[in-house]
Amino acid sequence: MSSSSPAALLDVDLRPGAPPMLRVEAAGDAPSWAAEHRDALRATVAEHGSVLVRGLSLRDEAEIAAVFQRLATGLMVERESFASRRNHCDGVYSASKWPPNQQMCMHHEMSYTLDFPALMLFACLRAPAGGGATVLADSPTVLDALPTELVERFEWEGWLLTRNYNDEIGASLTQAFGTDDRMAVEDYCRANAIEFEWQSDGGLRTWQRRSAVVRHPVTGRRCWFNQIAFLNEWTLAPEVREYLVDVYGADGLPFTTRFGDGDPIGEDVIQLLNDVYQVNTVREPWQAGDLMLVDNIRTAHGREPFEGSREVLVALADAVRLVDCSPTVEVADR
């Protein structure tokens, strides 16, 4: 790294098994500090895939929103969500509501959409009593660790996400699409290469085929960029999966993933993917006031189970288009 690089201006601690960390003195005016160090922080993320900033002592939603706005080039509105979030203010959300006792598998935010965030911003207002780290994994490293034959199949076929929207589990139709107007939902689906079918009970079933491997729009590196494992039925706790199959049937699950040709993905494949993620996971427990920036294309993130109360705010930033990431499959056909 050249000494003239903006990232070289920051003394980042690189420790095995942990994300890059920058320790700073409490600035008093965190938004001004973020604006002053924006280029250096973003350069650090470009070099390492993420950075955890400790010592800013972020205090409340307004301060965090101001920091996020100074670090991003633009905040996004979430669409096609799977779990409800609280919208604190424009573009600043709570972490997804996920059972505290369950692991949230590694994923790349909105990797099933045609426009997704290049940058994720996290800030901790309240750290849990135990666990609850936002864990990270380098996607090019994960890709290199996967069996060649499996990667080649996913590159050739892509992956298929199927969803069954209802008002009983996960994000509702209105939460996912931002409207309950059928015509608006249909227009969104057509514009975003999503096949759909209305059910007799008023529910909606959708299918969308996406690339499992993309190239980073800046570096050109091949990245394992998808939510194949996170959104697959075999990642669910066994008792949860059995209950959902019993209530909704195998074809009526709220969501699951398949190979791009529609074939089911076996439990052994999902276990393999999650095992590779686990081997390549880095973690650092949250402390109240922490800030973290994550390259959403290069770096997968997840969440560990936790005890106590946990409050982490999130922003999806710097929209990038799938077509600018060298997708390996056409999104319009299935």
From TrEMBL:
The keyword Zinc-finger does not apply. Keywords: Dioxygenase, Iron, Oxidoreductase. Its cofactor is Fe(2+). InterPro entries: AlphaKG_dependent_hydroxylases, TauD-like_sf, TauD/TfdA-like. Pfam families: TauD (PF02668). One of its GO terms (molecular function) is dioxygenase activity. Transmembrane segments: none annotated. The keyword Oxidoreductase applies. Residues 28-314 form the TauD/TfdA-like domain. It comes from the Bacteria. PANTHER family: GAMMA-BUTYROBETAINE HYDROXYLASE-RELATED, TAUD_TFDA-LIKE DOMAIN-CONTAINING PROTEIN. This is Alpha-ketoglutarate-dependent taurine dioxygenase. It comes from Kutzneria kofuensis.
